[in-house]
């Protein structure tokens, strides 16, 4: 069957059916085991080559093979089922040749559970001053020596990710800041579609690695709709919502998220990239998202901030110097079972062990939050869980974010009732 797919102002003719059969085999199984009767929230069992992932899931970010501050072994002991590695950074150091020699990133970091790799697309925003973007790909100047360059094309991104060996790999997409407007957003969206086709062609390990498409289009609803329409035709094992969490108005952010979850296939996992705040994880789960990642819990730990259900504690503050409580009373992480706020305060202001302990706690907090979200959905009490979470986190209803009130109201949860 010859199919013509319209992409931007070009028609690409190819044997779509045989193309997809050959290139888009799936190395995952996905089963939805519970749905919220009020919202779009759902609980799933995602089986990947390195084991089970319960969704909704938060995936900690181990950019260069580990989370900053803790080891992969410690992450495993916290019950983490999947974490991220970064293709661009691993491609620079230790480099593709070494990863090939050792048999991939699982072996390199001694991690037996699942991995997801970022394609390198986000670095087009985070390292924009070092990047030159063309239809061919993006050329980066090394942030390490400011001299050597890497040309990251869709083909090279796939080659790197095949060498890394992650269970889920992301297409190379043309990423622009969520604050960008005008023709550049449309250009990036259509280029992302074309680059997905090149990624599919170049992907060599579809029997063991799952390639996810990324929905782009900025804050433009029509561009997002068009991108979803095109990406669905490629029938990838899962889909990501990209190009958000870049400083855009949150009342627009959630509308883009819910549009995408409405339009994307219900039988595929949906991943919203760059999400890590408590209220964002709860709201986006209500909107139908299954997977998240963010550097927030580890990055904020390096500034002495510990996450709790009642908000963040800056343990560098002198007010904690004589506080002999654990960071969080009911937390069973090593930091909370073994040390007081007073001890961690002393270490956080002078020693790296303070950052280590707070990082352990913050990751434990995020993973426990997701377990609690899943359990509330399974027991069909998710709306009550959401209301209690916001009450604990913000206290007074007057402090509830307006965007979150609006977002949750769209899926039948009235935070103010």
TrEMBL record:
<feature type="region of interest" description="RNA binding">
    <location>
        <begin position="274"/>
        <end position="280"/>
    </location>
</feature>
<feature type="active site" description="Nucleophile">
    <location>
        <position position="293"/>
    </location>
</feature>
<keyword id="KW-0963">Cytoplasm</keyword>
<feature type="domain" description="tRNA-guanine(15) transglycosylase-like">
    <location>
        <begin position="39"/>
        <end position="391"/>
    </location>
</feature>
<protein>
    <recommendedName>
        <fullName>Queuine tRNA-ribosyltransferase catalytic subunit 1</fullName>
        <ecNumber>2.4.2.64</ecNumber>
    </recommendedName>
</protein>
<keyword id="KW-0479">Metal-binding</keyword>
<feature type="binding site">
    <location>
        <begin position="118"/>
        <end position="122"/>
    </location>
    <ligand>
        <name>substrate</name>
    </ligand>
</feature>
<keyword id="KW-0808">Transferase</keyword>
<feature type="binding site">
    <location>
        <position position="336"/>
    </location>
    <ligand>
        <name>Zn(2+)</name>
    </ligand>
</feature>
<dbReference type="GO" id="GO:0046872">
    <property type="term" value="F:metal ion binding"/>
</dbReference>
<dbReference type="GO" id="GO:0008479">
    <property type="term" value="F:tRNA-guanosine(34) queuine transglycosylase activity"/>
</dbReference>
<feature type="active site" description="Proton acceptor">
    <location>
        <position position="118"/>
    </location>
</feature>
<feature type="region of interest" description="RNA binding; important for wobble base 34 recognition">
    <location>
        <begin position="298"/>
        <end position="302"/>
    </location>
</feature>
<keyword id="KW-0328">Glycosyltransferase</keyword>
<feature type="binding site">
    <location>
        <position position="333"/>
    </location>
    <ligand>
        <name>Zn(2+)</name>
    </ligand>
</feature>
<feature type="binding site">
    <location>
        <position position="173"/>
    </location>
    <ligand>
        <name>substrate</name>
    </ligand>
</feature>
<feature type="binding site">
    <location>
        <position position="331"/>
    </location>
    <ligand>
        <name>Zn(2+)</name>
    </ligand>
</feature>
<comment type="similarity">
    <text>Belongs to the queuine tRNA-ribosyltransferase family.</text>
</comment>
<dbReference type="InterPro" id="IPR036511">
    <property type="entry name" value="TGT-like_sf"/>
</dbReference>
<keyword id="KW-0862">Zinc</keyword>
<feature type="binding site">
    <location>
        <position position="243"/>
    </location>
    <ligand>
        <name>substrate</name>
    </ligand>
</feature>
<comment type="subunit">
    <text>Heterodimer of a catalytic subunit and an accessory subunit.</text>
</comment>
<comment type="function">
    <text>Catalytic subunit of the queuine tRNA-ribosyltransferase (TGT) that catalyzes the base-exchange of a guanine (G) residue with queuine (Q) at position 34 (anticodon wobble position) in tRNAs with GU(N) anticodons (tRNA-Asp, -Asn, -His and -Tyr), resulting in the hypermodified nucleoside queuosine (7-(((4,5-cis-dihydroxy-2-cyclopenten-1-yl)amino)methyl)-7-deazaguanosine). Catalysis occurs through a double-displacement mechanism. The nucleophile active site attacks the C1' of nucleotide 34 to detach the guanine base from the RNA, forming a covalent enzyme-RNA intermediate.</text>
</comment>
<feature type="binding site">
    <location>
        <position position="216"/>
    </location>
    <ligand>
        <name>substrate</name>
    </ligand>
</feature>
<feature type="binding site">
    <location>
        <position position="361"/>
    </location>
    <ligand>
        <name>Zn(2+)</name>
    </ligand>
</feature>
<keyword id="KW-0819">tRNA processing</keyword>
<dbReference type="GO" id="GO:0005829">
    <property type="term" value="C:cytosol"/>
</dbReference>
<dbReference type="Pfam" id="PF01702">
    <property type="entry name" value="TGT"/>
</dbReference>
<dbReference type="InterPro" id="IPR002616">
    <property type="entry name" value="tRNA_ribo_trans-like"/>
</dbReference>
<dbReference type="GO" id="GO:0006400">
    <property type="term" value="P:tRNA modification"/>
</dbReference>
<dbReference type="InterPro" id="IPR004803">
    <property type="entry name" value="TGT"/>
</dbReference>
